[in-house]
Structures are given as structure tokens and as C-alpha cells.
Amino acid sequence: MAPQNIPNAAKLAHLEKQSPPHGLPPTGFIRQNQLIPHIVPISAATLWRWVKSGNFVAPVRLGGNTTAWRCEDVRQWIAAQGATK
What we know:
The protein has helices at residues 9-17, 32-35, 44-53, 71-83; strands spanning 29-30, 60-63, 66-70.
């Protein structure tokens, strides 16, 4: 994996400053415009590059043109990022 695909500590440092649950609802789904830059401070292109490479959780197709991420999956990803620092 190329280093530019791995979240760096500077971009994710704000996640630790936020009080849990990082602004995420306990369950349900979160859309891309709610996810970035509010929860994950990256661009949309980087988000989809991370999804494709497996560095970020895959979204769920809710139907038609609607794609979202499970809040539980995003929480687990955030927790894993804190554990790898």
C-alpha cells in the first residue's frame, strides 16, 4: 500500500479531540456529505480511493443513486485508527 493512501496522524488528530461518538448517531446510516469533512477530514476523491483500496469501510447501496455508510462501521474504523497510532 502506498503511504499516501494511509490516513496520517495530522488528518485524524481531530477525531480524538471530539467527544465520542464523534458526532455519529448510535445506529443508522451516514451520507458522504455528512461524513466529509465533518467526521473524516479528507476529500471525496480520497474517500473513494480509500474505499477502493480497503483503507476505509465500504458503503452500502440503499437504492437508486443513494449510497451511505453504516455508522457502526465508521465508528469501528475510527477506533481502529486510534489504535494504530
